Amino acid sequence: MRENHKSMYTHAIPGVNRIDEHIRFTQAEKSISHFGDGLLPGDKLLADAANAQQRGRQTKLWCETTTRIGEAGVRDAYGRRDAKIRQWKEHLNKEVDKLAQQIQQIEAVHRDLLRSRQYLSNVARVSEMTAEFRKQIPDSTEDDVGRLQKEEMTETIKVDMELEQCAKDLMGCQRQMENARKALMTEVEAKALSLNISRRTQHAEPLLGFPYTPADHHVDQIYHPDTEEDWERNLENKIQKSVATRTEASTCNLRTAATVKDGLSKVANAWYKTSKALQEAVQRDEKSLFNVHNRLRTINENVTSTKQRLDSLFDDMRIQDRSKVLQLWRLQTLTYRPGADHIRDAPVRRLDQELGNIEKRGTFINDGLTRNKDLLGKLEEEKLEQTLVMERLTKKIYIERENCLGMRRTVAVEGVGLKDYVTDL
User: Fold this and answer.
1) What would the pLDDT profile of 244-276 be if each residue is shown by its tens digit?
2) Could you give the CA distance from residue 268 to residue 272 in angstroms, rounded to a whole number?
3) DSSP E strands: which ranges in 233-382?
4) Nearest Cα to 68, choosing from 56, 80, 76?
5) Are 404 and 277 in contact (CB under 8 A)?
6) Would you state the pLDDT for residue 56?
7) Three-state DSSP class for residue 362
8) SS3 183
9) Closest C-alpha among 123, 157, 396 to residue 275
10) By the 8 A CB rule, do 163 and 231 touch?
């Protein structure tokens, strides 16, 4: 009868599935049971019922207290776990934000790099066009401008190759950071889902034992099949990899900025050296052209004066020819006069003397004509040569000043220390 009461009363307590052998009775309860053996059967039955009711109240109170303590422990364990998950979620979100900022910086540096490469392509295009223009110069030879221009094109191509390698490094860093951000965002989503599950199940009846063990919570192990220490260590490794990736990206940014700065400075240096050499060549050619113009003016003046002298000498030659004919006629008349018998008298000798003077002067005039004709021929040859030089210099100056320097003015030169160069082309 007593065993039946114990079994029925025990099962009547909600949440308790224990057997009565686990209940410890006090010495007073045992004494009451011992002294109750002398009572009447009815009184003994009432005493046993009262004793069983008292033990049931104590057992119920103990079970409720134990259940309340267990539920509080489980609730505290859930709270600590949720706090830790929120902490990791905040940490992951901060790292994701830092990765996003670093990705934006990488994209900005990559845009600047593309703009610098576009600028270098414009510089290379202008250099090639300058070389093509200079090939049109008549009798063009290798000079300092051509040598500096080759160095400029070589430097531009070299810097562009370095910037291309920097662009590849930036793209590699960006892919690594995007992968790291994707992995961390996956972890953030897993933490958010875990918090959502905990929030939905925090008021449910606890089905698990106390204390809280993550391995016993199968719902919590959907995304983290390992222990709590393992996934914390995994998260720490992912964050360390993310920090290392951000550090590498920052170093790549600094290295790219330094490469761009140094490369643009080298290109600007070569550019201004070539432009300055072109400007000096144009100034030299202008001075040479000015001298050629002066020489041509002098040659024209000499040609004019020589032609005037030739005209004067031709007039003198005609006068001398008429005087010679007259003197010869006089001499013939005196020589063959009647009765003279070819006597060499004073008039004849005087005519001979005048005729000799006329012949000497004619010889002098002929020599002058010959010299002036030779001089006129040399002047004409020199004039033709100076005219060809003038045409060649004019075309060269036009090509270098209007085409080459005019084309180079269309490029806004970028670099460091531009005030050290002559920028007024």
Assistant:
1) 999 999 999 999 999 999 999 899 889 989 889
2) 6
3) none
4) 76
5) no
6) 82
7) helix
8) helix
9) 123
10) no
Whether 68 contacts 206, CB under 8 Å: no
CB-based contact 60:13 (threshold 8 Å): yes
Six token digits for residue 408:
């180079």
Q: Which of 106, 86, 123 is nearest to 175 (CA)?
A: 106
Identify residue 367 by its one-letter amino acid code.
Answer: D
In sequence order, the 6+-apart residues with CB closer than 8 A to the CB of 7 are: 20
Residues 6+ positions from 265 with CB-CB distance below 8 Å: 415, 416, 417
Alpha-carbon distances, residue 21 vs 2, 3, 31, 315 (angstroms): 13, 11, 18, 165
pLDDT per residue as tens digits for the range 305-346: 888 888 887 887 778 777 777 777 776 666 655 555 555 666
Q: What pLDDT does 18 receive?
A: 44
- Residues 2, 48 contacting (CB under 8 angstroms): yes
- pLDDT at position 13 is 41
The whole-angstrom separation of Cα 26 and Cα 47 is 16
What's the CA gap between 251 and 264, in Å, rounded? 20
Q: Specify the amino acid at residue 274.
A: T
The amino acid at residue 343 is I
Distance CA 67, CA 75 (A): 12
SS (H, E, C) the chain: CHHHHHHHHHHCCCCCCCCHHHCCCCHHHHHHHHHHHHCCHHHHHHHHHHHHHHHHHHHHHHHHHHHHHHHHHHHHHHHHHHHHHHHHHHHHHHHHHHHHHHHHHHHHHHHHHHHHHHHHHHHHHHHHHHHHHHHCCCCCCCCHHHHHHHHHHHHHHHHHHHHHHHHHHHHHHHHHHHHHHHHHHHHHHHHHHHHHHHHHHCCCCCCCCCCCCHHHCCCCCCCCCCCHHHHHHHHHHHHHHHHHHHHHHHHHHHHHHHHHHHHHHHHHHHHHHHHHHHHHHHHHHHHHHHHHHHHHHHHHHHHHHHHHHHHHHHHHHHHHHHHHHHHHHHHHHHHCCCCCCCCCCHHHHHHHHHHHHHHHHHHHHHHHHHHHHHHHHHHHHHHHHHHHHHHHHHHHHHHHHHHHHHHHCCCCCCCCCHHHCCCCC
Low-confidence ranges of the chain (pLDDT < 70): 1-39, 70, 74, 77-78, 193-228, 231, 331-348, 415-425
